[in-house]
């Protein structure tokens, strides 16, 4: 596998970076130790500009190439998950209840490796903007950084990111044009009836019966209101009500997630959910309130950039090591905000067998870090070749 030679030489150093970051997982916007480590490394590499404190702990570093040209953005997420690690590793988390269970420590390492190489060689024109982002898992750090104006401030013309993928062939790249990850919205339904003795249901207005019927009815949106060609998931994940066996409760709370790939389907779901809620309120003679919290939008790859990224990936992994027609993933990713702001692409990098992301025994495979760093480096050099004579 033709990893860039200079980056291959950094393998041990990159592993040390990654395993250090793994010990200090941080949540949301509060990635202070992680950002400090990243900033120290970037300074040692000799980046031309270092902008800290964006979205609390986000960083944008600029490396100038040889000759004039546009700016290409490369993004890595830095935050961890509120989980207890069960790997037993010597470099396991030292922060109780926090764990790098999604590989963002590896993503940060891959971008640092590319940064060191690009700062040394500068075999490209224009500039590269290295975007280290907090709060991907919760808080939408990508959106916050976009709203802070990084795309305009640094004149980013296009932007790319990669995510590790357990279970996919080691070193393989997997992507597609169009939607690659879903929008993630959350619904809350609060039912208010009339409590009473369970032996006298006629004197009460039972929210439990209404809740059971409502949950079943919500599934008809997928089976009867959705075009079968459109992908949609509606999952009810929580129902909370009652305290004991002989009391009909006054209230019931229902919660769940909606996953879509298009704004039309998203709007249809909201309309039908409201109609179903209103209908059940009338049918059962109680009050039902619906609230939908709109989360990350779908992650949609731009066709030209996804095609180009796949070509570059083929230089690293070989033609057989790149898949460009993977099925969309129903998970969500806040890189979506950057792709709404600028053309670009998102790719998955296979890391072989092992525990999946968000699992307490997950661990990033350090052997793929030079592969990801090489992809980032070649992406810049291919997108913005150095000006002759510069």
Describe the protein's architecture and organization.
There is one protein chain. The chain is α/β, with parallel strands linked by helices and 390 residues long. It has 2 domains: 263 residues, Zn peptidases (Aminopeptidase, 3-Layer(aba) Sandwich); 112 residues, Alpha-Beta Plaits, CATH 3.30.70. The chain contains 11 helices and 16 strands. An 8-stranded mixed β-sheet has the order 1-2-4-3-5-16-6-15, with helices on both faces. A 4-stranded antiparallel β-sheet has the order 10-12-8-13, with helices on one face. A hairpin with a 3-residue loop joins strand 1 and strand 2. The radius of gyration is 24 Å and the shape is elongated. The model has no long low-confidence stretch (mean pLDDT 97).
Query: Any idea how many domains?
Result: 2
The whole-number mean of residue pLDDT values reads: 97
Question: What share of the residues lie within helices?
Answer: 25-40%
Indicate the low-confidence ranges by residue numbers: none
User: What is the CATH superfamily label of the largest domain?
Assistant: Zn peptidases
Count the helices. How many? 11
Strand order of the largest sheet: 1-2-4-3-5-16-6-15
Order of helices and strands: HHHEEEHEHHEEEEEHEEEHEEHEHEH
